[in-house]
Design goal:
The chain is an alpha+beta fold and about 260 residues long. Helix content is about 25%, strand content about 20%.
Amino acid sequence: MDTEAQHTERDPRADPDQGSARGSRSARFTTLTRHLDGPWRKAGALFALCVVFLLLLSHFVMQPFLILSGSMEPTLQVGDRVLVDKLAYRFGDSPRRGDVVVFDGRGSFVREAPEGNPVGRAVRSMGAALGLSEPAETDYVKRVIGVGGDHVVCCDRHGRIEVNGTAVDEPYLHPGDSPSQVPFDIVVPEGTLWMLGDHRSRSSDSRDHLGDPGGGMVPVDRVIGRAEVIGWPFARWTSVKNSDAFAAVRDPGGGHG
């Protein structure tokens, strides 16, 4: 008897039963993968479409903006997410006195910032556009106090700001704040805006740049949009209304603003 032949192990691959079992498992796995692949692929495509839609909506129509400071209290509080209407001034309309606007402060409130890493900048921009991360450090939210041609003075003998000779009572000011501890007497150049925060004692605004190039004036074309609604938290869901405090103010030419 050939002992070598007795001790030789059989090749499992030559076993038709084992090969059949392996083939069956492989077939089941392939079938399962096919069943799962369809729903997951559809879900991924739907998610991608939603992200693209939100990015386009944020870029062209309405962008969420995260409030990081108390400079606009009590109107806007830290942690609020405000929906900013980017179409508000794109069809011939211009910012008006009393509007709360978001703007790019480069060239007015801050110097032109270096571009930085383009990939990181794109990721941050995408997160900010979806309201998931902080806005750019050069973006600000303030209230329009003076528009092009306005003569804005602080303060009259009752401590109120005057615009074109009309004293303005500002009901949106933070309780206990005066209209300004910094005196000023300026004429707003055409195409620019004079901006102040509602929490005057905690706001770095146009007053802080009186001695800088541009004198603290913000170019209208740097305005990103008008704050319309506090969208989050839900407990603070409300519109950000234009104040009628400036209703009696006349334009420099004599008409009402």
